[in-house]
Design goal:
Shape: elongated
Number of helices: 4
Largest sheet: none
Order of helices and strands: HHHH
Radius of gyration: 26 Å
Strand content: under 5%
Number of strands: 0
Structural class: mainly alpha
Helix content: over 70%
Length: 113
């Protein structure tokens, strides 16, 4: 009986060590993903600042309208996640609104001439 208790204690210790190792690995992944997210946001912020200085903020801003369709495609291909009809309609509406901005700008610049 004593031998079984020692064996059980060893199994639980090994299981605990494996769980702690996996938890440590997961925390490292979370830290890396958080660092990459901060780096990405800082890059976008800097890009918008540079575009505003050069008068091209509208051009850079349109790039944000590409993010949703790309996210839908990546979600479908990588995670086999199928978007709902409402998600597709919303993405279409956002893309259409984004595409209408340069068209309106072109029309208003023609009016000014």
């Amino acid at each position: 009986m004593q031998q079984q208790k020692k064996w059980a204690a060893f199994v639980w210790m090994a299981f605990g060590a494996i769980c702690l190792t996996l938890a440590d690995f997961a925390m490292k992944q979370v830290a890396v993903m958080g660092g990459l997210a901060v780096l990405g946001l800082a890059s976008v912020s800097r890009a918008l600042q540079l575009a505003a200085v050069n008068g091209k903020a509208g051009t850079v801003g349109l790039m944000f309208y590409v993010q949703m369709p790309v996210a839908l495609v990546i979600g479908y291909l990588v995670y086999a996640e199928q978007p709902s009809l409402m998600a597709l309609l919303g993405a279409g509406l956002i893309v259409a609104a984004g595409m209408s901005l340069p068209l309106r700008a072109g029309v208003s610049s023609l009016r000014q001439k």
